[in-house]
Amino acid sequence: NNMNLSDSTKDFISGTTAGFVVKALDHPFDTIKVLLQTQSTHNPTYRNAWHCLQSTVQSDAGFISLYRGISSPLLGSMAENAILFWGYSHCKTALGETPEHQLSLGQLALAGGGAGFLAPLVNTPVELVKCRLQVQSAATAAAEVALDGGGAAAAARFQQYKGPVDVIVQTLKNEGLFRGLYKGNMSTLAREVPGNFVWYGTYEMVCHNMIPEGGTKADLGPATHLLGGAMAGAGYWTAFYPADTVKSMIQTTSTTTGGKQPGMLETFASIYKQQGIKGLYRGWGVTVARAAPGHGLIFRGMDSFLSSTSTLKSY
Q1: What is the 3-state secondary structure (H, E, C) of 189-252?
Q2: Mean pLDDT (whole number) for 209-214
Q3: What is the pTM for the complete model shown?
Q4: CA 100, chain centre distance (Å)
Q5: pLDDT at position 45
Q6: Cα–Cα distance between 67 and 64 in angstroms, integer?
Q7: Tens-digit pLDDT profile for residues 215-238
Q8: What percent of the chain has pLDDT over 70?
């Protein structure tokens, strides 16, 4: 049952499918993460992830509020995973991988970092749209909170939007392309390059250590791919999570009034000064909780798809 598809095409298709499924499952957790990251450091609205979840679900929109703004990241996650796995395949080829020559774990991790350079092209605008809609939704639920508190304060930094398309149109109109839609790109890059180095490196390390003596990666069962993906997801979000917190803060801050746009280092220093390491890791627990199973499914899905096309290889 060989399908006449190139390896790159298979990586692209499987990455797209995995991105869709995982984002549909983990978006509520992402909403909680963003609300915790962008709430006021002086007068926070939420005590912890559980309080944030309760407050969000108890809003007028109910459970559906957890899925506010999902259309943009749903499409974006499909594109991101497709580009990541496609880029990873090409980076491995550039580093000399052939059917007869397998790369070392260090080289595989390096290929992952290389693939991470491509991700911000999709991630930055998609996450900006997502973050603004998520925080805007929280503002409605926190209408009784003072303007300097939590979601209401964050939402007050930019105008109200009707939906994803309106966010794109208004952001381009009022803030431009690079200072607007691609705001936070450097923070995204600071997360994606080292993050994907860890992501792919961890997954490949787990698989390498689980291969039976005298066997190959083709001998590994589904549980190994799930475990490797889960550990990779936890590693990705732990090592460079502060970059994501900085990105979320930058993207939910408007510059329509002509004021100075806060940069990555300036935002990082501000958060650290006010809340220390704890502030930079706000929402980390719920993020890892959703990343571990979600990323496990991504790699398990990749393995399943590649197996069905009779081309099982290191990815």
Answers
A1: HHHHHHHHHHHHHHHHHHHHHHCCCCCCHHHCCHHHHHHHHHHHHHHHHHHCHHHHHHHHHHHC
A2: 90
A3: 0.80
A4: 34
A5: 83
A6: 5
A7: 888 889 999 999 999 999 999 999
A8: 82
Question: Do 302 and 49 touch, CB atoms closer than 8 A?
Answer: no
Position 120 pLDDT exceeds 90: yes
**CA dist., res. 221 & res. 104, Å (int):** 22
Within 10 angstroms of residue 117's Cβ, the number of other Cβ atoms is 14
Q: How far apart are CA 255 and CA 174, in angstroms?
A: 8
Span 242-274, pLDDT tens digits: 999 999 999 988 655 455 777 899 999 999 999
Q: Number of C-alpha atoms within 13 angstroms, CB side, residue 267?
A: 24
CA atoms of 151 and 69, how far apart (whole Å):
15
When comparing pLDDT for 230 and 313, which is higher? 230
**Cα dihedral: 290, 296, 71, 127 (round 10):** 70
* The two structure tokens encoding residue 186: 């450097």
* Residue 22 banded pLDDT, cuts 50, 70, 90: confident
* Angle at the Cα of 125 from the Cα atoms of 119 and 126, rounded to 5 degrees: 80
Residue 309 pairs with which residues in a beta bridge?
none
CB contact set of 126 (below 8 Å; sequence gap of 6+): 72, 73, 75, 76, 77, 79, 80
- Token pair 């250590």: residue: 209
The alpha carbon dihedral of 38, 232, 28, 115 has a sign of positive
Round to whole Å and give the CA distance between 77 and 169: 21
List % helix, strand, coil for the chain (3-state, nearest 5). 75, 0, 25
Tokens 């390059």, located at residue: 193
